[in-house]
Amino acid sequence: MRLKRILYLAAFLTCLSFTVTAQDAGNMPKWYDTFSLRGYIQVRYNGFQSNPNLGCEQCDKSWGTNSSFFIRRARLVFSGQIGKQVYFYLQPDFASSADGGLNFGQLKDAYFDIGLDKANEYRIRIGQTKIPYGFENMQSSSNRIPLDRADGTNSAFTNERDLGIFFYWAPKEKRALLKRLVDDGLKGSGDYGIFAFGVFNGQMANQLDENNKFHTVARVTWPFAIGNQIIEPSIQGYTGQFVVTEGDMSPNVKYTADRNYLDQRIAASFVLYPKPFGIQAEFNVGKGPEFNKQTDSIEVQNLKGGYVTMSYMLKKNKHVIIPFLRAQYYDGGKKFELDARSYKVNDFEFGIEWQPVEQFELVGSYNFSRRRYEDFQLPENYQTGNLLRLQAQLNF
Question: Residues near 46 by Cβ (< 8 Å), separated by ≥ 6?
């Protein structure tokens, strides 16, 4: 009898254990509940250009004589909170250009966040991601109103990304606010922390490090509400040594023996979110490699530049209409272009964004551009002109 009771008890406990395990498994989210897939596609047309020699290599390669329909971005975003303190993000783009061809696949983001506390207010990000420098640089191209980022701040990093390790801190309520600014269509930059600090290779995304010397970056921002308005001031800076590679230099241009150049900046940002009137302004100063046509050499020189964008958000019958205008200025080099090409930019544009439904938007703008961009092969190159720009964007 005692043996039977023991066997019955063992069977009961086994069944109970199985039931609890099954209930726990039933409460655990499935992989398709924690993973998400989204993305966007941008198709552009740049036309009616008054000067076919006016180009913009960094912002849009379809400027100039090759103007036509152009897929600017075609991106998929895979992400998920796969654990209470583990998050991943993977974003390829299928509209990159290479060797004169278009629409190649390229990795944009590949990182994971590790929360250091249960609320994930403190977290470490590891991988290829946007550098926390500049509001517009971190703002997704699917959210930004002007079609391209401004030269003054975007000249810091091509593709805005690099490979490294970053620390982020943000209180729970600030993380919720940063998320809401994007979810509500207010053109937020996303959650890159209230305080950010990181080290990264410094040679741009999808590039090997060239000197075994890390860049360092730090940023502080503080979004807050005043009545119905939300304001976000920020300050950020980075420093490091950038290597101008042989593939980015003309055969006879002069350069330092090790091709290492000081690369550092500091920037201030101010955002008044469009409720309904909005202002977004940034300005940065620093030093970096730049072509000097007087000496036919690449030298460390001062740089400065920024922009002001003003907008007004109208909502009527579920339509969103945002007229905007922007002025930008930049005087300095672009370290990732041929011979660290020297620039002086004075651009003005105005336009309108129309969202008839959440998944689709149209943007039309007209640009007035004055650009001096010179390198060893083209030491005298000052171009002015106007052009009409159109973009259709699908969000899913």
Answer: 60, 62, 63, 67, 70, 387, 388, 389, 390
The gap from C-alpha 234 to its chain's centroid, in whole angstroms, comes to 16
pLDDT tens string 321-363: 999 999 999 999 999 999 999 999 999 999 999 999 999 999 9
| Virtual torsion, Cα 59, 61, 63, 68, nearest 10 deg | -130
pTM above 0.85, yes or no: yes
How many angstroms separate the Cα of 64 from the Cα of each of 255, 341, 388? 30, 18, 12
Distance separating alpha carbons of residues 292 and 231, to the nearest angstrom: 40
174 Cβ contact list (under 8 Å, min separation 6): 194, 223
Look up residue 160 and give its two tokens.
């805005």
Q: Is residue 330 a contact partner of residue 344, using CB atoms and an 8 Å limit?
A: yes
Q: How far is CA 20 from CA 16, 54, 307, in A?
A: 6, 69, 60
Distance in angstroms (rounded) separating the CA atoms of residues 27 and 25? 5
Q: Indicate the DSSP class of residue 157.
A: S
Residues comprising the chain, all counted: 396
Query: Among candidates 246, 248, 188, which has minimal Cα distance to 57?
Result: 248
Does the pLDDT of residue 240 top 50, yes or no? yes
**What is the three-class DSSP state of 99?**
coil
pLDDT tens for residues 5-54?
443 434 443 343 333 333 344 555 666 678 899 999 999 999 899 999 99
